[in-house]
Design goal:
Layout (H helix, E strand, L loop, with lengths): L4 E5 L3 H12 L15 E3 L5 E5 L5 H6 L5 E5 H7 L4 E19 L4 H7 L3 E5 L2 H10 L4 E5 L6 H4 L5 E6 L3 H5 L2 E17 H6 L1 H16 L10
Parallel strand pairs: 1-3, 1-4, 6-7, 6-8
Antiparallel strand pairs: 2-3, 4-9, 5-8, 5-9
The structure holds adenosine-5'-diphosphate and magnesium ion.
Length: 224
């Protein structure tokens, strides 16, 4: 084989929850990204390697063919737009929910009813814009890169749009979820050109992943 098969993953939950799928396909990393500063990680398979990138950069690397495969959350994929990517498989890992949340004293239902112009702080500008446009609500979007929960507390925004799993971070900051936007899980993504040119290498991996999903392999990662 000429060119190694390159799989883009992010550190943390995506890497950890993707490992069982890769193991099912006989692919094992030679190092743990948590214990290494390396951004290119070899595997037991000489023709397969991982690259470690930011979660929101995974679709970009795969779109441009710098990686053949990747695993990315639906949140990240919607924000990216999905250009140049196939999304053949929902791995059902890293499950959470995109929600609107407000300070517990804020009357969200009243604001919606009265058509109040809302200030919305979020990392997910596209998802938030489309959500409120569909509700025909006027919003001022405030782009943040993290710690969204702070925005309503200090009066930067009326509501936030963020991922919620247990809700404990919201609760710790006196916020409550007021509206669900979408269910989020992580997907296998494939570069569209690689899917044709490296089909012989990619298809067996994809088939094993698909089998693993239907066997409920993702359940193992759910306490992480
Ligand atoms: P980062 O903080 O760099 O975005 P994370 O590992 O926190 O990296 O998130 C990676 C992906 O995991 C997100 O894009 C999302 O799809 C999912 N995710 C984020 N937060 C949670 C959560 N609390 N529970 C489950 N999945 C989550
Ligand atoms: Mg995070």
């Amino acid at each position: 084989m000429s060119d190694p098969l390159t799989i883009a993953l992010s550190k943390g939950r995506i890497f950890e929850e993707t490992m069982p799928f890769l193991a099912a396909a006989g692919i094992v990393p030679l190092e743990r990204p948590e214990h290494s500063r390396k951004l290119v990680i070899k595997t037991n398979h000489p023709d397969i390697r991982f690259i470690i990138v930011r979660a929101s950069d995974v679709p970009t690397y795969v779109q441009h063919g710098a990686a053949d495969l990747g695993v990315a959350g639906l949140d990240v994929l919607v924000e990216h737009g999905g250009e140049g990517l196939y999304q053949p498989l929902d791995l059902q890992i890293a499950q959470c929910r995109m929600m609107v949340a407000a300070h517990r004293d804020f009357d969200y239902a009243g604001a919606v009813r009265q058509g109040t112009r809302l200030r919305v702080a979020t990392k997910y500008v596209k998802i938030a814009r489309e959500h409120f446009a569909a509700k025909q609500m006027h919003v001022d979007l405030i782009k943040l890169y993290g710690s969204m929960e702070l925005a309503p507390i200090v009066g930067l925004a009326d509501v936030i749009v963020d991922l919620v799993s247990t809700g404990s971070t919201l609760k710790a900051n006196h916020l409550v979820p007021v509206e669900a936007i979408m269910e989020v899980s992580s997907r296998l993504i494939v570069n569209q050109v690689a899917f044709k040119l490296k089909r012989a290498e990619i298809m067996p991996v994809m088939d094993i992943f698909r089998q693993a999903v239907s066997n409920g392999l993702n359940m193992k990662g759910q306490n992480g």
